[in-house]
Amino acid sequence: MLATYRQALAESRANGNPPLFLGNHFNRWNNSVYSDALTTFVQETCKQPDVRCVSNRELVGWLTRYGVPKAS
Hints:
It is built from three helices and no strands. The chain is mainly alpha-helical. The mean pLDDT is 86.
């Protein structure tokens, strides 16, 4: 799972660096493998100088400010 998150970030960076959204239901499926992978990914990624980890509200504000059309 962690490798999948890392690959998603690499692909985002290779394609113009659009926002990358990772959702999680914060559950204990498969011995918490999903939550543990997301926690590790956030800890190693959010401290990188070219990464901004933001709330959904901040993301919507950014999308609105830069003219990205709202989904209907």
